[in-house]
Q: What sequence folds into this?
């Protein structure tokens, strides 16, 4: 069945109902731009993150992992240009004093804002006679810094302002020298990290698509500048391979060459990888050529030599950087949207998540046909323990009738359901193995279950 009719509400409501994602601080009415992952969401997220680490770090011999502190010396963010340049355009409703993202207002009004600077956007507001969502006049736009500020130190008056990190990348740049000193890597090599980032987004929206606290998987790939174009192409291809490994169809992943005016302050070339979300084609990932912008700025600001000394004795230089970056939450959202499916089974509508097996939060569910028959229950427990030992994420379900149990597992994307019935204990020792996508059932010997799963 086509998925064009699927809405964000369908995804969000399933995610809440089945324990993937809840609103942050929900019992207090929530906190805008924050979401909490429930048991199944955590499992799905962990599977994604582990798959990414395996794909880009463990399976390669040119990648070094780090886990740097979220709180960093504020000089890092001054040198990186984030204090001055990490901004979004804001505009104020003159009556209510509410502030809005100017680019979002224009996009919502059907204006193509690609390549527009603040002055061009201001002109477009005038041209269109744009009003605030409350119907009032809009004031003059201004740039708004996205870094979250907090203060460090216990003594009032002696506290210093520090920032929650706006990207994980700076943790890799400030550890460049440490990695070189500890491991003497050959160039090119990468430093990878997965972790939380924080942005004071003015209009968090679209469920977990734009939030104030989110997770990034990214790496800085240090290169000789003469090779940047070839390296850029290499990572571009590998990013598509990664999307493919997640089961995201190539026709739903698009590239956008970001024009110079829209690129981040550090980038000489950026390609956005966009995905067809239910609310439109939106950025999923980014690939940027950050040049030597960060290392050179940190070298100048810290006074530490951040050059790379080639092993062949040629002249030292500050390496350039290619940066593939991947939002964890957006990955999870793309995977969920892509997996969400509906069909009809026995005349009834069925919702199921067609998740790739290695990403599914639960790998298999084991049930006794009837829960009041001890001989069925004990055999089912035996099978459950055996599978749990091997696969870990196996669920037990003996609630309601078997059809309801299948539906529950379909909705959370469990690839296989195993039912222990009278034929198992009185007949040939086989169990029913049901497939999530086709709903087909077949009889399988217990000791042949594992290869099937
Ligand atoms: N170090 C580069 C960097 O941080 P970015 O494009 O600003 O680049 C990286 O962010 C990725 O993080 C994006 O491609 C997107 O997947 C995700 N992302 C960015 N802002 C986000 C937000 N407010 N909420 C959720 N994910 C976000």
A:
């Amino acid at each position: 069945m086509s998925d064009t009719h699927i809405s964000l509400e369908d995804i969000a409501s399933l995610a809440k109902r089945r324990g993937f994602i809840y609103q942050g601080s929900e019992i207090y009415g929530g906190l805008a731009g924050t979401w909490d992952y429930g048991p199944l969401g955590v499992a799905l997220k962990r599977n994604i993150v582990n798959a990414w680490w395996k794909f880009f770090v463990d399976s390669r011999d040119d990648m070094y992992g780090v886990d740097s502190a979220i709180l960093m010396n504020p000089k890092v963010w001054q040198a990186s240009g984030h204090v001055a340049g990490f901004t979004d355009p804001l505009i104020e409703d003159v009556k209510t004093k509410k502030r809005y993202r100017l680019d979002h207002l224009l996009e919502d009004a059907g204006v193509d804002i690609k390549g527009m600077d603040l002055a061009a956007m201001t002109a477009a507001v005038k041209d269109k006679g744009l009003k605030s969502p409350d119907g009032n006049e809009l004031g003059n736009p201004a740039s708004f810094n996205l870094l979250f500020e907090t203060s460090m130190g216990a003594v009032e008056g002696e506290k210093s302002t520090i920032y929650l990190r706006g990207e994980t990348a700076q943790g890799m740049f400030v550890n460049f020298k440490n990695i070189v000193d500890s491991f003497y890597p050959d160039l090119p090599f990468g430093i990878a990290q997965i972790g939380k980032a924080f942005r004071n987004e003015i209009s968090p929206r679209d469920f977990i698509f734009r939030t104030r606290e989110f997770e990034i998987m990214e790496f800085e790939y240090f290169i000789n500048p003469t090779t940047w174009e070839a390296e850029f192409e290499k990572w571009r291809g590998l990013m598509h391979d990664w999307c493919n490994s997640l089961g995201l169809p190539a026709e739903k992943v698009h590239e956008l060459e970001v024009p110079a005016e829209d690129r981040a302050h550090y980038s000489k070339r950026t390609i956005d990888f966009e995905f067809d979300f239910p609310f439109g084609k939106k950025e999923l990932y980014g690939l940027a050529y950050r040049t030597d912008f960060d290392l050179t700025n940190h070298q100048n600001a810290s006074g530490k030599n951040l050059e790379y000394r080639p092993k062949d004795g040629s002249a030292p230089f500050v390496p350039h950087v290619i940066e593939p970056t991947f939002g964890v939450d957006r990955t999870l959202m793309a995977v969920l949207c892509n997996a969400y499916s509906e069909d009809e089974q026995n005349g009834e509508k069925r919702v199921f998540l067609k998740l790739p097996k290695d990403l599914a939060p639960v790998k298999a569910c084991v049930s006794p046909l009837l829960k009041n028959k001890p001989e069925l229950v004990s055999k089912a427990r035996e099978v459950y323990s055996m599978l749990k030992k091997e696969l870990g994420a196996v669920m037990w379900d003996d609630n309601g009738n078997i059809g309801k149990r299948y539906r529950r597992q379909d909705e959370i994307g469990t690839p296989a359901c195993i039912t222990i019935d009278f034929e198992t204990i009185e007949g040939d020792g086989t169990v029913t193995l049901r497939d999530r996508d086709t709903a087909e059932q077949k009889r399988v010997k217990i000791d042949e279950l594992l290869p099937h799963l």
Remarks:
- The two ends are 26 Å apart (CA to CA).
- The mean pLDDT is 94.
- The first strand starts at residue 21 and ends at 23.
- The first helix runs from residue 8 to 17.
